[in-house]
Each structure stands twice: as C-alpha cells, then as structure tokens.
Amino acid sequence: MGLGRWDGEALGAADLARAEAAIAAALDAGITRFDHADIYGHGSAESIFGEVLKRAPELRARIQIQSKCGIRLATADSPQMYDLRAGTIRARVHGILERLGTDNLDALLLHRPDPLTPPEEIGAALTGLHDEGVVRSVGVSNMSAAQITALQAHTAPRLVVNQLEMGLHRRAWLEGSVLVNTPASADVGFPHGTVEFCRAEGIELQAWGALANGRFTGLPKEPGDDAVATLLGELARVHDTTPETVLLWWLQQHPAGIVPVIGTTNPARIAACREAGAEPSRLTHEEWYAVWATARGAQLP
Q1: Tell me, what's the pLDDT at 4?
Q2: Could you tell me if residue 155 is left (phi over 0), alpha (psi between -120 and 50 degrees) or otherwise beta?
Q3: Tens digits of residue pLDDT in 136-172
Q4: Which residue intervals define the domain NADP-dependent oxidoreductase in the entry (predicted)?
Q5: CA 272, CA 218: separation in Å to the nearest integer?
Q6: Which of 16, 167, 246, 267 could form a disulfide linkage to 25, CB 3.0–4.6 angstroms apart?
Q7: Per-residue model confidence as pLDDT tens digits over 55-78
Q8: Are 205 and 258 in contact (CB under 8 A)?
Q9: CB 102: neighbour CB atoms within 10 A?
Q10: CA-to-CA distance for 244 and 238, rounded, in angstroms?
C-alpha cells in the first residue's frame, strides 16, 4: 500500500495522525507492505512515514518497506528527466533511508527506465547496494521484458518485482493477449509478452493504480464507468463483499499473480479492500469475463 502524495513540505500533528490512522487500518486489513517513492510529495510521504516509525519503532519488524528512485522532477531550470546513474541511485537511496529513519529497504525499485545510462552502470549500483545490505531486494517499475533482460544481465541479485499500471481502467496488458492477429493489436500500448515473461521468470507483477482513483467505485470519469460500477455493485452483493474487493479480485484472479498497490490514506477505503487480501477471488469464470466485457464496451474478438 502507498500513502499517497502528501502536499506541502510542512508536516504537522494532523498529518501524523492521518498517517498513523492509515497504517493502523492497513495492518488491520492484513496489509504489511508499504510502497514509497522519493518523489512522492517531494519526499514528504517518506518523511511522515518515518515519523510514524520513530513513534512506534516496534512497527518496523512487522512491515516491509519498498521505495523507488530514478525520476527527477521538473524545475524552473530543467525539464523532468530520468536519472539512474550510479551516484544518483546511491544518493537517492541514502536520502530515502534518512527520511524513513531505517537502515535498509526491503525492496528498491527503479521508478522508470533511463535510456541514457548504460545497464552495466545501473546493475553495478544495484549490486553494490544489495551486497552492502542497504537494500534486501531489487526490482523495477514501468519496464518491458526486454529492458528487464538487459538490466538483469549486469545485476547480480535477481530482479524480483516489476510495478506497472494495471487494472480495469488500464487494460492494455490484458488486451494484448487476445488481440493477436487482429488490426486492433497495433493500438495496444503495452509491450507484448511482458506479463508472460514476468510470470515465467518469477518476477512479481505489482499493479499501481489498481483502484483507478475510484472511477468504478463512486467517482466515474469516462463514458461507461457507470455501467462497470453497477456490475461491480451487483457482484459485491452476490458475494457479500465490497465493490473495491470485486475490482481487486478481478485483477488478482489473473494467473500472473498480480499484486495490487492501493494508494490511499482513507481508513474506510482501506477497510473496503480487506477481503481482497484475506481470501482468493470468488468470481466465477463467467463473472470475470462479464466485468472485462463491460469495461471494454465491446465484444472480444
């Protein structure tokens, strides 16, 4: 679970209370992995989490912390860019650890690929941090099978995670698997074979944006969202659960073993996802396809 993008740099008692409530709700829901990135709130998300750990140091042994680096946000003098040079990775990781108030990360993910930095340099940096015990495992985010293969060739520890935007709202990862040999295949904006590659290599697929910012559970944005929300509500009643759980079940039921990343500090929203982590999907084969067909708004080929 991620704690969102805390606005502003001055964090106060109200922010700390909100973070503590969110973490408590997550633990109550069985969530023990927390996802960060050095750019979230310009580091404030990690800082507030670190304050929670400072007040309850025993919490560290109960949870796993992962964070990401590699994006340099735009400034008045430069555009947004990606930077996975060895020195930058090391500096960012030590900044992350300082903000979190911990000696190591359970996982470090590279936030986005940096086409200008050679994989040899990136891999050496990851290997060094892993050998030193600063990061216990390493992975990537928003990378294709080919990019992972190129990086793994120069990285001693196994790359164990690929975090991608995946969900009912962002279905190119799924559409590509059934649009082979159709004209629509050319419109799939997702690298073919990446899901299958990760599954074959034992790389965990983490889905960021899994709840689609509430599009199907109360905050419709696109034509057709209401129809999906209605179906999710009906299935929630059938299975005596919440629409959020049905939405996550749909994602988790895929044989790739997708792990949803929930980004929120709302305890009620966290609680609504509880059953998704507590038990396997109860959706039938037919119900799963009905959800997909409703979201795509057209029959499968």
Answers
A1: 63
A2: beta
A3: 999 999 999 999 999 999 999 999 999 999 999 999 9
A4: 2-288
A5: 13
A6: 267
A7: 999 999 999 999 999 999 999 999
A8: yes
A9: 17
A10: 14
What is the token pair recorded at 251?
Answer: 């994602």
pLDDT in tens, 205-263: 999 999 999 999 988 889 999 999 999 999 999 999 999 999 999 999 999 999 999 98
Dig out the tokens for 117 from the structure.
């930095």
The confidence band for 9, taking pLDDT boundaries of 50, 70 and 90, is low
Q: Which residues of 247-279 are buried (b: 16+ CB within 10 A; e: fewer)?
A: bbbbbbbbebebbbbbbbbebebbebbbbbbee
Which DSSP helix (H) or strand (E) runs through 150?
Answer: helix 145-152
| Average pLDDT for the chain | 94
Q: Which residue has the tokens 């400072």?
A: 54
Burial of 224 (C-beta count, 10 Å sphere; 0-12/13-18/19+): middle
* Average pLDDT of span 174-197: 86
Q: What is the CA radius of gyration of the chain?
A: 20
Which secondary structure element, helix H or strand E, spans residue 288, and what is its range?
A: helix 285-296
- Residues catalogued as catalytic: 40
Set out the domains of the chain in order of their start, with CATH numbers. 1-163 (3.20.20.100), 166-181+209-301 (3.20.20.100)
- Angstrom distance (rounded) from CA 175 to CA 190: 9
CA–CA distance from 6 to each of 3, 110, 159 (Å)? 8, 21, 29
Q: How far apart are CA 187 and CA 183, in angstroms?
A: 8
Token match 């084969």: residue?
285
